[in-house]
Amino acid sequence: MGAHLARRYLWDAEAEPDPLQMPSFPAHLGLPLRQPRAMVASAEQLAQGRVPLEQRDFCGHHLLRLLRCQRDNFPVPWGCHELRHAWDSCQHRE
Amino acid sequence: MDLPLVLNISMLLTLAILSTPIILPLLSDNFKNTPTIITNTVKTAFLTSLVPMTIHVYSGAESLTSLWEWKFIMNFKIPFSLKMDFYSLTFFPIALFVSWSILQFATWYMASDPHITKFFTYLLFFLIAMLILIIANNLFVLFIGWEGVGIMSFLLISWWHGRAEANTAALQAVLYNRVGDIGLILCMAWLASATNTWEIQQFTPQSQIPTLPLLGLVLAATGKSAQFGLHPWLPAAMEGPTPVSALLHSSTMVVAGIFLLIRTHPMFSNNQTVLTLCLCLGALSTLFAATCALTQNDIKKIIAFSTSSQLGLMMVAIGLNLPQLAFLHISTHAFFKAMLFLCSGSIIHSLNGEQDIRKMGGLQKMLPTTTSCLTIGNLALMGTPFLAGFYSKDQIIECLNTSYLNTWALVLTLIATSFTAVYTIRMTLMVQTGFVRIPPLSPVNENNPAVTSPITRLALGSITAGFLITSYIPPTNTPPMTMPLSIKVSALAVTALGILLALEASKISQALILQKHGPFSAFSASMGYFNPLTHRFIPTKLLSGGQNIASHLIDLSWYKMLGPEGLANLQVMATKAITPMHSGLIKAYLGSFALSILIMLASTS
Q1: Does B7 reside within a domain?
Q2: Which of the residues A68, B76, B89, B461 could staple to B335 if both were Cys, CB 3.0 to 4.6 A apart?
Q3: Residue A49 falls inside a structural domain
Q4: Distance from CA of B455 to the nearest CA of A (A)
């Protein structure tokens, strides 16, 4: 009944790999075109915003904007839907 | 304006306001406590606690206050420190709101009780102990609150102490909680010896925390939150008055165990054994409690088993490494479960003490407000979309569905969700609809605003709390966002299945055919045979073992067989062996002496 189980039964290993035999990519896959991942928000900004440690990831800039928007629209909870969506889709892509 | 200062002061002010009705009578002779004073005190405390919660939601300010330090020994100091973080700042207003509503209801429910002020004072003590537990920053202060809620639970369950079942129920509560306390003390002992502190800040996920203290924590939560194994006290605790059931055994005390696991979560977030244990224990508890609730006939017991089932669901959330979801479920569950208990209390009082749902029916026309709020509470409990229960319960089930973990736990939880729908609909059908089975001349009324306003207030909370909390607090863990449609609606689907099943089953009962009671219904009705098995077997073994040790081992063995009597027996044995060696014939001995002397004289002369 889990999603992973359903996918395992219906499709092949490309859609849902066996967790005990996860594919390991070669270390230099696509190396010339790969750039190091850069954080958009700096560490000082995250620390100043007092973002919890688990959420200081590569989507932190969206979260900072979202927190600022929530603080600005305070008693009204429905002002920040686009920023929330941006953060959610960044997390999803992560 | 210095926000942390305002935060600290307002939280301490809340606690101070709550302790006013206890301290003022000691200080002055003219001050007499009344239930209304205590209710208004809690209302004021609730309004005061909204201030720090708003500050926290607005600015994310948290604070840690250390009030006094008990310099225990040279290198182990126990500060009396209070932690005002998201959990405590959010739970304070929720607990105070629910308590205010319950106390207002209790002014009507316990109005005929001669010791009503003492009742309210006990509830206030309980509330203060619970809030100390919530706001504690180290395990010592938490333990103070823990024991406090245990003792007040005992005193309140046995409120009508002339009734023997109430006394046994209170004893059950205390004993089962004590077994859980062993686990908590074990963990505290290990922490004190290994990390030299009891502060929550020091709970870092180290790889070398042995599993035993963490198992102790799980045992403590099992005892306090009535997970399977230490659960019988919760249905038995329904012997107490309904406000007690509503406050202690639905919203606040039974979540203390889960809250402990939430607070100490960093310690076992790496330990897969403990997480799996929590997951499986929670799944088993939720299914077992839901099964037992299917055939109960006492309305309070149905709601008690429902509480036990939801606590299992919170434990499942902890086992999924999602303490924030568990806390969200605690918060939303408090609203609708307290409201369900208050509605049932209103129904019970209106029917002059009748608690059996087989003797209730057709109350929708007679008690419209109460039954509407009962329906809202039941819908929220089942996880109806966009009511309070949906935001927490559905998210837990989604996360369980999409995590690569125990499929067995998943199956159990889904079955339990459908059973939740079944017993809820059964209760609704038998209590509210159908033919009227109540005796005539019952004092059915809900004209008193002390009844209707708490219930409607909590109904408002049940509807909006989930939405409010999730819209103001961004989630700490990324929720699973993609899943096949079937997984997304699986919770709804099993709930709908449960509703259909309940409607079918109610048609069977209306057909007036004598039902064959199979083994499954017997299992459910006798609560899994757990109570007689454990309550008779374990004390018998312990007491007979104790009797064996006291009389056979100590009295007979040490004092008799290995002591004086044993020595005496050895002596007697030796004597018996030697005594027959002589025959006692003195004349024969003298004759032989004389003969041998004569022979010697004759041979030498």
Answers
A1: yes
A2: B461
A3: yes
A4: 26
